[in-house]
Amino acid sequence: QVQLAESGGGLVQDGDSLRLSCTASGRSASRGSMAWFRQAPGKERDFVASIPRNGDTTYYADSVKGRFTISRDNTKNAVFLQMNSLKPGDTAVYYCASSLTIYYDGHLASQESSYYYWGQGTQVTVSS
């Protein structure tokens, strides 16, 4: 059983930065691809970014490309999301997700159904 725990959320102002962290515990905790998704109030959960185990490529939603950076540290079973130039539209609960499969297909990497393990989420609020 894999458990994911996010941290680093908070209340920031337009243009600020935040770094989210997600630590995985359990057997095969960081065996496959890991990703970040987010869910704004009243909206469906959306893909943000994904990274395969060896970190040799990354995938991003168009809305965050150039502002967010996903990275991982397999020695710590952790994945990170550096968020720069935050906007009020980035306000959401951010979820960490983990898969036992390594995705090198951008479409598959961006699908909720590709990930089996999920964290509880961390709130990010960006004020204008």
Explain what the structure shows:
The protein has 128 residues and is mainly beta. 3% of the residues lie in helices and 46% in strands. The protein contains one helix and eleven strands. The protein has one helix spanning 106-109, and strands at residues 3-7, 10-13, 18-25, 34-39, 45-51, 59-60, 68-73, 78-83, 92-98, 117-118, 122-127. Strands 2, 4, 5, 6, 9, 10 and 11 form a seven-stranded mixed sheet that branches. A hairpin with a 4-residue loop joins strand 7 (68-73) and strand 8 (78-83). The longest helix is centred in the C-terminal third of the chain and has 4 residues, at 106-109. The radius of gyration is 13 Å and the shape is globular. The mean pLDDT is 95.
What's the pLDDT, averaged over the residues? 95
Distance between the termini: 40 Å
Q: List unreliable stretches of 5+ residues.
A: none
Helical stretch tally: 1
Feature tags:
single chain, 128 residues, mainly beta, seven-stranded mixed sheet, four-stranded antiparallel sheet, 11 strands, globular
